[in-house]
Amino acid sequence: MNKTLYLPAVALFSLMLAGCEKPADTGLTAKAQSADGAATVQLETEAQKVSYIMGTNIGSQINKDELDFDMNAFNTGVKDAFTGKEPRLSEEEVQSVIEAFQARINAQQEEALSVVGDANLKEGEAFLAEKAKTEGVVVLESGLLYKVIEVGNGASPTAEDTVEVHYVGTLIDGTEFDSSHKRGVPAQFGVSQVIPAWVEALQLMKEGAKWELYVPPSLAYGPGGTGGPIGPNQTLIFEVELIKASITDGDAQNPED
Prior knowledge:
This protein is an alpha+beta fold. It has helices spanning 7-19, 46-60, 71-83, 91-131, 180-183, 196-204; strands at 137-139, 145-150, 162-171, 176-179, 187-190, 210-215, 236-244.
């Protein structure tokens, strides 16, 4: 069997394992135990250390709490490949196993996101319901809530305008996930190119205004979140200052500045 045909499958499997990565304290020391827990590995030569590093890099990608991982089978696979033995699984079996594994991992991830998303949604709904009772907070039909910090007296942008704003974005627990102030420069973008909450709020604001927005997930990033600091179905808070309601080409920032 041509072993080069296995490369795409192996690369895919490595990516799949990387997608399951979860930081963990492995408890490994310089004298690492072997699979049977008895012998020790000497880490004196460069080859020994590099080999060990390669092993720990692979091992760190494997979530042993969620994967039914067999260390003996893994070691056998490494030895077979290293010594040039014929693979013990056919190409068809490799493809079938990988597809089934990927489907199972995807289902687990979707289930985990759903659980987190449901919790975030309930927490956000409770937060917004309480915030709606606060003096000075306006509740719009869309579900967006806002509080005016500074009124502003300039023009209001339209959906076709490019605006300049300063803003700070936080989660409802106070965790800050974005800030134009910390970057030291206002943000510029088309009104229609941002999340629905911003599209609606910006067109109600006047130049010079500063509002605090309380944004339900349906007007933000929804059940998918951002894959980063904003999780599934998270309610967000933005402090938005509208500096310029309409930017001309001459006012636009140079991306290379």
